[in-house]
From TrEMBL, chain A:
The lineage of its organism: Bacteria, Pseudomonadati, Bacteroidota, Flavobacteriia, Flavobacteriales. The keyword Nucleotide-binding applies. PANTHER family: 5'-NUCLEOTIDASE, 5'-NUCLEOTIDASE-RELATED. CDD domains: MPP_UshA_N_like. Belongs to the 5'-nucleotidase family. The keyword Transcription does not apply. InterPro entries: 5'-Nucleotdase_CS (IPR006146), 5_nucleotidase/apyrase (IPR006179), Calcineurin-like_PHP (IPR004843), Metallo-depent_PP-like (IPR029052). Pfam families: Metallophos (PF00149). Residues 36-253 form the Calcineurin-like phosphoesterase domain. It comes from Winogradskyella bathintestinalis. This is Metallophosphatase.
UniProtKB/TrEMBL annotation, chain B:
The lineage of its organism: Bacteria, Pseudomonadati, Bacteroidota, Flavobacteriia, Flavobacteriales. This is 5'-nucleotidase. Signal peptide: none annotated. Residues 71-212 form the 5'-Nucleotidase C-terminal domain. GO terms for molecular function: 5'-nucleotidase activity.
Amino acid sequence: MKRRQFIQKSTAATVLAGVSGMNLQAFTPAKTKKITILHTNDVHSHIDPFGPDDGRNANKGGVARRATLVNAIRKENPNTLLLDAGDIFQGTPYFNYYGGELEFKLMSMLKYDLATIGNHDFDNGIDGLYAQIPHADFEFVSANYDFSNTVMDTHVKPYKIIIKDGIKIGIFGLGIKLEGLVDKNMYKETVYHDPIEKAQDMSRILKEEQNCDLVICLSHIGYEYRNSDKVSDIKLAQATKDIDLIIGGHTHTFLSKPTIEKNSVGNNVLVNQVGAYGLYLGKVDFYFNAGKNVKADGATIVV
Amino acid sequence: MTIKQIFNLCFFLLIFSCASPKLSKIEGKRIDIDNTLEANASIERFIKPYREHLNKNMDSIISYATETYSKSDGAYNTALGNLLADAIFDEGNPIFNKRTGKNIDLVLFNHGGIRSIISQGNVSIRTAYQVMPFENSTVVVGLKGAQINDMMTYLSKSKRAHPVSRHLQLELNKNGDVNSATIHGLPIDDSKIYYVATNDYLYNGGDGMDFFHPNEGLYVLNYKIRDVLIDNFKKTDTLKPKRDKRFIQLKD
């Protein structure tokens, strides 16, 4: 309590100091700010579109078309982030031939901002993943994989904060339990930690310590496992607070629109996933007003 | 002004001018990526040399299939599964023998691991990628006869055409229980060590195959199953595998 009073008083003093030098322009009505989050997951090396004869996904997907779409959206709103929720690798011969080099180079050309790590990203071993890092102009986040005793040490951060148009966006990553899913020889000394505990830590750091306006979780733990205790994006949404959006992967869940869940304090959290193979691009727009007239129950959600 | 008054003033100012931005609205949707979108030309140009190199290699013809073979062509054994299991023996055993002086007794693979049909006509490297897209690699495991019997029980219960090599003869009775099992024509000897070739995924318990542990030794051949197929197809002018009686259920 004492600490809180101190903060309030010091804030007051700071603001007062600011007021004396402030001119009237500061009081013009604040504009609405818009942050666009674009996302993919489980693209699995699907660089070319599916052919016209494909039984399920004929003429869908393709990185070059995704680039056209992303460029158009960025042109409309420069305050756009492009994220990937893992399993970038494995699924077409492009991966078998080039080891992920082309996937990373193309994601860099599309100006991806961040990705998290999926189980298939270990398919050429952790050394195979590390070997492709020089081809990635984007960064990796994972809060629950500890890479300290591996070659990936320092190449993956728990979270990253990106500021767009003055809006502070905190993004952290989560990965799936590797034991039983990926050969130990592949992930080596990568240590897995409980996603919910890590997410609680991350949202506290990003919301309370770093004062982020928006907290996003980039997850590869899977959308939902029916009749199972297995941790999932839905369970994660319910067990945490201060997360605005969970972008998921792994289960190849084709959601036609984001799911709205209630978090541990009864506020809304969006959970989204766009299936696999780059057939769709997820798009979530966040609108911010400066300060006033915000309803107590949170933002209006249109999905 | 008292401290309290200063604070109130500042609080007022904070709310109306300097407050942090508040989230007011969220809109979410998904956008189709399909042929209504034009391909970005510079991305397309960048991919092209990779694609051409890959296709040239992938489309090189390495064999010919007399029929179309599918993993669902039979209840307990299929021509495609037999081809795969026998190829793992034929390509893997010379390597295993050279390293250890021993021979593979039996190959076990999983039905789910076959990811595509082989179509009648030319067989290319692409065919091997379609059948076996994963990076799984060949391992040989030493197992006591008792565990081989566990394996037979597993095969009887799974009721699927898990591929086995020609060295095994497994008959289930009409109830689906093991009626007889022989390797090289001989009954399974509980105390003998058998060398079973499989892949690393199954060795690590994939598909519920928990009979590979404990074991009498693991031999990692560093030989991807897909490369086994490519090498085998290259040596075989015409693929004509047959469904046979290596794994069957008796009618009565």
